[in-house]
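User: Small ask, check this?
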Amino acid sequence: MDLHSSHLLERATRPGTFLPETFSWSQLQTGSFEVRYAFLEAGPIILSTRRLNRGVKARAELVPQTSMIAVAADLSTQARWFGKEFDASNILATHAWVEISTPGPAWFCSVTIDENSLVRQFSQTPDVLSLLEETKRTRLSRDPFYALRLRYAIMRCFWLAGTSGTPELPMGVPAKTVYGTLVPLAAGAMERFDAHAVEASKSLTRRVTAVRSCEAYMHEHAGETISLLDLCRVSQMRSRSLINAFEAVTGFSPMDYLKRLRLSGVRRALQLADKETTRIIDLATDWGFWHMGHFSKYYRAMFGELPSQTLLNN
């Protein structure tokens, strides 16, 4: 399978899958980030795979009338989906938002469905209608057997495409493999969701809500000084409770998470900037770094290079 690669996660998303203005992500783990990705189009269904070499936090809203089913592509992937544990035993389905974080390298594969197009082409197919009905809620299930079967079916499509020497599924494969095998399999998995659902505890739900409100505040006040007291006020939690919430949901303390979010913001801005006109100090202050010596030290420790090197090599 021939994978493309990028240092920007947004370039590993298929146009028309997510609303661009809602897409945000931050690198959480030190080192140079890279995502390797591939897409396969089969009419209203798009198969995708993304392999991340560093831990990240990503969030985006699907375009209307689009749904997604995803599984881990290998046994070592560990992640959190809206705060819930997600690994090779899980299947997730969403009709609205994607929010996932990984503590380290991870590999995912997914099925994205253009619902209107699928109905137009297969309006009399029971498996298709069942699949569309079952993906209208955001849910997470723990079903090792079906997760394994879905993972194998998706990756087999990529293998078949790779052996054909073309970037798209070979002639005959979409109808035979996607609509004849993958769609019924996905529909069957969706029907089992209620029996294998992963329910979030009330404490986890409260923690996720607190972290999410703090993240929104961090983005809204990116260029300002933010203290733990500010975040406690926003989340309406005491400092110890908020620290516990962040460590449970993100793996980091609130202030460490804020620093990583800001460093990632500067790095993405540098990677997209005009190297002839951009001043690093301007981007750094936009993201709340006022001491350039400290900023350069943090940046190099996080990404293994100086900000000037990122700008030069973008």
Notes: The chain has two domains: 4-196, 202-312. Confidence is low (pLDDT under 50) at residues 164-172. The two ends are 26 Å apart (CA to CA).
